[in-house]
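TASK: fixed-backbone design
INPUT:
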């Protein structure tokens, strides 16, 4: 990749052999080498945990604890710690249920050469390739039909993202203790004091056969508290969250326009 500044990590549960085999084919297809990160297994986590605020999670997310989400959260933090122990400028962090666009390397290189600074670059969408998440506003064309974009809405999922050293350090400093799922936690730029962008359309998608109905996290509706328990705290929190997002993104949008 551009200037050899990107190190690649693949997060995989040791017992998820089928996913590792699938991921190997995916990475080989686009010529990406990766460092394997053995994921933290939620089944091996016991509560209470010193790096998990269960009450805050229950109130802000409106769900009972899902140990699979804890394992996912801690796995991502472990990758960021390892990245900071290298001399690399950027890390590409990937989960094991993704598929890449054939031109993923050119897209990443285009983002790095764009002249627009970012700390976190969200590359993955959902399993529906026709639906873009996060209300992206296009900033600059970087490769063929792909654009560097700024999201004005919440973008779920952490299937694949690129992060620099500043972003990794801020995440470890600010949200080392889990109180939300990893995608909700990462999507609060104003709290982390980072700049996150995305690629539109998403060049990385979830494989349906490994995601829908076959997730190791199983973040299903059965974990949700009843309606009357969820919304008296969660709804006001999310409203404030989205207002903060809007104001912060408008500020970043104007700053990018001035810089360019």
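OUTPUT:
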């Amino acid at each position: 990749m551009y200037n050899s500044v990107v190190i690649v990590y693949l997060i995989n549960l040791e017992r998820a052999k089928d996913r590792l085999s699938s991921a190997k084919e995916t990475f080989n297809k686009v010529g990406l080498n990766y460092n394997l990160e053995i994921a933290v297994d939620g089944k091996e986590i016991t509560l209470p945990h010193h790096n998990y605020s269960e009450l805050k999670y229950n109130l802000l997310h409106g769900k009972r604890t899902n140990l699979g989400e804890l394992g996912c959260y801690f796995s991502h933090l472990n990758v960021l710690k390892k990245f900071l122990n290298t001399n690399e400028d950027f890390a590409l962090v990937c989960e094991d249920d993704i598929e890449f666009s054939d031109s993923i390397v050119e897209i990443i290189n285009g983002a790095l050469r764009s002249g627009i600074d970012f700390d976190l670059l969200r590359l993955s969408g959902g399993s529906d390739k026709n639906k873009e998440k996060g209300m992206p506003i296009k900033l600059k064309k970087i490769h063929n039909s792909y654009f560097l974009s700024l999201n004005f809405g919440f973008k779920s999922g952490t299937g694949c993202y690129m992060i620099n050293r500043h972003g990794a350090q801020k995440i470890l400093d600010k949200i080392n203790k889990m109180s939300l799922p990893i995608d909700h936690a990462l999507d609060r730029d104003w709290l982390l004091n980072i700049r996150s962008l995305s690629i539109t359309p998403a060049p990385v998608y979830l494989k349906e056969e490994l995601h829908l109905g076959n997730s190791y996290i199983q973040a299903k509706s059965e974990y949700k508290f009843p309606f009357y328990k969820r919304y008296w705290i969660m709804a006001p929190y999310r409203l404030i969250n989205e207002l903060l997002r809007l104001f912060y993104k408008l500020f970043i949008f104007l700053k990018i326009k001035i810089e360019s």
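COMMENT: The domain at 2-259 is CATH 3.90.550 (Spore Coat Polysaccharide Biosynthesis Protein SpsA; Chain A).
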